[in-house]
Amino acid sequence: MSSTTGVLMGAKKARVEEEDARPLCTDALTEVFHRLPARTLVSCRMVCKSWMSVLSDMHFVYEHLRRSQQKLLLFANDRANDRSLAMVLADASGSMYQLSRPLLASRSLFVHNSCNGLLCLGDSTGAVELLNPTTGESVVLPTPMCTAGSSQFSSCNWHCLGFCQSTKEHKIVHFYPGPHIDSFKVRCEIYTFGGNLWRQIGSLHGAPTDRGIHVNGVVYYLTRFRYINSSRINCLNLETEKFNVMMLPPRKSYGGQCSLAELEERLCLLVVDGVPEALPRTMDILMLDNDDKQNWTHRYHISLPWLVSSCYFTPKHTLFHDGKIWVQLLARNLYCYDPSSTSEELETACPESDFPFSTHKFVESIIPLRHYFINHTQ
């Protein structure tokens, strides 16, 4: 065999060995990436094209999201400096770090809700903006059909961001009042990531009493009726885009003011008993069985602290994080409850904030908004 032939065979063998090694190297690198926090992966994407390819693969993105740990996000408006801040509570000691803030920040900006590390933002004009505070990407959605006179507390500006696991689609639900104010009829439109328009999907009777809760691909919300002294839970399946109705537990099971929350990936009913002038004032948490959607289990009984009479509304920002239940009662105060302790009292979670804030369940993710939208900002 000539020397030339030997060199060619050696080069061919080296190429084969290199090609065989590439999948192993990629698998090892992917496993390393899975163990890194999302904030680090944002920088890793800029290293080279091969790393960008791995970190932009949607299968990897959702697998990394599945392994990520839940945190608490405190969203505040610094009115003095005309800016919005997205801060993450790192631990129970009050340690925080700041994420990227919205580029289109305004004094009236607020968070409707959070899903898969994406924030659904709104303002007093009814505009809707999506933000991934980990990557810094944001995008303004097309204007919903009804935005006039909107505020974060009105049903005509109530939005909820959710995710359909089977189709891997993010959708935003928007409720707005029907043409006749006295009819108590509320219309619903929905927007799918990557689309161009909002789509009407139907209407319902009864006005939503809060902004709704997204749990495992379903949006739940309490409704009330003008002439009927009762409420019920309406459900919107994001996959089928169909409505359903769920009745509240028997009245003897709760009897107080109610709101909805999501704890441990389950729908929960928060019930506050008592009146502002009477002590003690308590909150019970009933958890829905995920299998049959019929049975409610009483899980927690919490004593609320006495602050001022005006603060005694049903806490809407109640979240489960790090084995504890976190409750926001006032605009600048956050409390927590440890189910493993013998006490039923809420304890102060962190020092009083300099700015009013809203509390949201949050997980850092590298979901790229550009995967869904051509026009986006960075």
Describe this structure in words.
With 378 residues, this protein is an alpha+beta fold. It folds into 2 domains: 3-60; 68-371, Neuraminidase (6 Propeller). Helix content is 15%, strand content 40%. The chain has 4 helices and 25 strands. It has helices spanning 3-34, 38-44, 49-56, 58-67; strands at 71-78, 83-89, 96-99, 110-115, 118-122, 128-132, 137-140, 158-164, 169-177, 185-192, 199-205, 207-208, 213-215, 218-224, 231-237, 242-246, 257-263, 266-273, 281-288, 296-304, 318-321, 324-330, 333-337, 347-348, 357-362. The strands form 6 sheets. Strands 12, 13, 14, 15 and 16 form a 5-stranded antiparallel beta sheet that branches. The chain has a 4-stranded antiparallel beta sheet with strand order 3-2-1-25, with no helix packed on it. Strands 4-5-6-7 form a 4-stranded antiparallel beta sheet, with no helix packed on it. The longest helix is centred in the first third of the chain and has 32 residues, at 3-34. The model is unreliable at 11-22 and 374-378 (pLDDT under 50).
Q: N-to-C SSE series? A: HHHHEEEEEEEEEEEEEEEEEEEEEEEEE
CATH superfamily of the largest domain: Kelch-type beta propeller
User: Could you give the distance between the termini?
Assistant: 60 Å
Radius of gyration: 24 Å
Number of strands: 25
Poorly predicted residue ranges: 11-22, 374-378
Overall structural class, as computed from helix and strand content, comes to: alpha+beta
Shape type: globular
What's the helix count?
4
Largest sheet: 5 strands, antiparallel
* Top-tier CATH class of the largest domain: Mainly Beta
CATH fold-level assignment of the largest domain: Neuraminidase
What share of residues are in beta strands?
35-45%
Mean pLDDT: 76
Query: How many separate structural domains?
Result: 2
CATH architecture term of the largest domain: 6 Propeller
Percent helix, as a range, is 10-25%
